[in-house]
Amino acid sequence: MATSPKLDARIPDGPLESKWTKYRSTVPLVNPANKRNLEIIVVGTGLAGASAASTLAEMGYKVKAFCFQDSARRAHSIAAQGGINAAKNYQNDGDSVYRLFYDTIKGGDYRAREANVYRLAEVSGNIIDQCVAAGVPFAREYGGLLSNRSFGGTQVQRTFYAAGQTGQQLLLGAYSGLQRQVGAGNVDMYTRHEMLDVVIIDGKCRGIIARNLITGEVERHFGHAVLLCSGGYGNVFYLSTNAMGSNVTAAWKAHRKGAFFGNPCYTQIHPTCIPVSGDHQSKLTLMSESLRNDGRIWVPKKQNDTRPANQIPEDERDYYLERRYPAFGNLVPRDIASRAAKERCDAGFGVGSSKMAVYLDYASAITRYGTAEAHKNNMHHPSADQIIEMGKAVVKEKYGNLFDMYKQITGEDPYEVPMRIYPAVHYTMGGLWVDYNLMTTVPGLYALGEANFSDHGANRLGASALMQGLADGYFVIPYTIGAYLASEIRTKAIPTDHPAFVAAEKEVTDRIQKLVSIRGTKSPEAFHKELGKIMWEKCGMARNDQGLKEAIKEIQALRKEFWTNVKVMGDIEEFNPELDKANRVADFLELGELMCLDALNRNESCGGHFREEYQTEEGEAKRDDDNYMYVAAWEYKGDSDWELHKEELVYENIKIAQRSYK
């Protein structure tokens, strides 16, 4: 299997351990005077976007940052709860850069690019130092050292955290750096703006078309380079843990203009989500993976057991993850934990009114922590009530806001009764294909963070999303962008009345005009719900040949109906969330088809891509390394037409094996 001639990953030569250091030291530089004449557009202001925009501005580039929220601080990165990984080995438990690299490759089921993953592991320690310097209040041990906890897919404690709001605190750190550059005049901030197309001139990305979501005005913006930091596409499933505004539009417009889309079928189902409660829901709420660090997951041993959890004796409980995967127990990777929960529920052991949930129980953790506290306080014969009281206090300190959130949503107190959880769509490992420099197949167009495909393979380990976003923004793009911009210093700012800008704007306005003029009978929301149902049932936690073929036909029919029967209320030149939604759903309808096509093409199971035809006798994912050890990079050729390009994955530093967490 050879890599497509259209794909050049630009991976530096030399040993894995020195690739990044050597490359960083030899990559072309742009001198300070020239940086002042170069303009960079950053789309999205989450962790990747905010860190990139602030760092590039501090380096001297002129930066324009765009976000569709009313403040950069509302980016979806704020929702991350559990933590951020780094190979600091603070626990002295055997962690290292190589072990983080190995865990990430193995966790992704051997479908990630070695060079990118090693670089991620290598810079991870710097991220923590950077964030501490920015004032992020990470949890600390009694002696003052930063605290770590365990996450899935690893046997070391390497996850740094700030209670259950790590994403929020990290984003506030990056946001403060961004606002400092806004205040200094180095970043022009465009809030309530949505990117609706990229502008290509002479084969290079030279700007974007954006819509002011308050006034409806369509604007043209020039940039010597454009960075897409616009997050993932999990909302193609309608119900997901993503913010309701999260969408694929920026990445999809880039895809239609020539940027290849990598591994679109690799979507992650998170095992610890609050179960769906009814058709009224528009999003789902996640309970952090950090809860698996101390909680125990179980179902009753008896099918359709309707007794309250606290009345089911210990010997009548099936701690199925501990039973099936003794080495990792409740800390197996997300894809494995999710499928195991689905298998138990499908077999009739589910709990709750829907029977589509399992228990996440904190009783033993509360007792364990309470006993430790009693020893610390020199209490020789504490009562059971005292132990539980002290244990609850420790759990509250570690996970309090998560427990409060659960109680607010479900009306049940997780200090008293086990939480009920079930898998839900959470993260997308696929995204725009990028090379080692994070550049897409369109020169001058980059993708960072969840918007690209680069670092996680077929399954992301918990606490690695924040790591990748900040690595890309703080420590990778500031170096690699020089490789491109060093040759652009003679390019003057291109006026936005250039024919390419005019044509791109016309494309955007024509599409908006068409959406508003259809005046059908169904809302964009109704179409989104229908698409989500198809995707979840036929391209969700499990897929098969027949279901995927059906899904492709159903999505094509739904898209045809959308463009003849969608009803968009309101006008164009005003604040119109219905129009924004219609625009995004139209893109999801195209993406959904490509995801099913990619899943149909990959005749194997790996990580989050589980084809029912390809599994072991124990129900584990069965890879086909001989035929599918490649990145699937899809080139857009027209309506329902894509060409597949393959980037061969070569492993020189890791022994490939079937994943085992037993």
TrEMBL record:
Which residues belong to the signal peptide in this entry?
none
- Which segments does the entry list as coiled coil? none
The UniProt record lists the Fumarate reductase/succinate dehydrogenase flavoprotein-like C-terminal domain at 528-661
Which Pfam families is this protein grouped with?
FAD_binding_2, Succ_DH_flav_C
Spell out the InterPro entries in the cross-references: FAD-dep_OxRdtase_2_FAD-bd, FAD/NAD-bd_sf, Fum_R/Succ_DH_flav-like_C_sf, Fum_Rdtase/Succ_DH_flav-like_C, SdhA/FrdA/AprA, Succ_DH/Fum_Rdt_flav_su, Succ_DH/fumarate_Rdtase_cat_sf
Required co-factor(s) are: FAD
Q: Name one GO cellular component term.
A: plasma membrane
Q: Where is the FAD-dependent oxidoreductase 2 FAD-binding domain?
A: 40-466
Which GO terms are recorded in the biological process aspect for this UniProt protein? anaerobic respiration
Q: Which reaction does it catalyse?
A: a quinone + succinate = fumarate + a quinol
Q: Where this protein primarily resides, as one coarse class?
A: membrane
Q: Where is the active site?
A: R334
Enzyme Commission number(s) from the entry: 1.3.5.1
Q: What is this protein called?
A: succinate dehydrogenase
Q: Which organism is it from?
A: Siphonobacter aquaeclarae
